[in-house]
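Input chain follows. Return structure tokens only.
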Amino acid sequence: MLTINILRHGALEGGVKYRGRVDDPLTAAGRSSMDSVWSHLQREVDAIITSPLIRCAEPAKAWAAAVGIECIIEPRVAEIHYGEWEGKTIPQLQAEYPETLAQWRNNPQGMRPPGGESPEELLARLNAWWSEICQSHDGKQLLLVTHSGSMRMLIAHALNAPIATTRHLAMPYCCWSRISHDNGSSQLDFHNRETA
């Protein structure tokens, strides 16, 4: 059986905005929250897989080095590309793209931000990665450090659920979830677990 702990990065400098490839650094509190989850996992994890974006990769590389395990930088688990929406706040997008943003927030299936990536494209690259990791790391316990969009798609895949249902998942900074995969079947073990 493969077990993947999925950790969303912590809070970021610059406030709330659409960040796919915009790579703002973690706040001190954001990093501390991530370290807290890591303290619960460090003796259980065989390897860490991380998005290449600094908000995920910087802590992941430090944790792996501290305990002497492999840290794999995996571009396919990076956040969805928001195209022209990158780095913009919700009020900015409401002013510039009111109808498109409303549709995106209600049901993003089948659409994409201008110049960006669709949820289906994100899901396709994550599914390709998932198929590989299930074979190459069977019997292992991993930590995946990633983003809310990627977490939503992986959970949808594990539950065999439509993309639209993922809008109903709470996905705060430093959200910790776990998916297990055994004999060709995946299940969500828990979602948004507290560390205290």
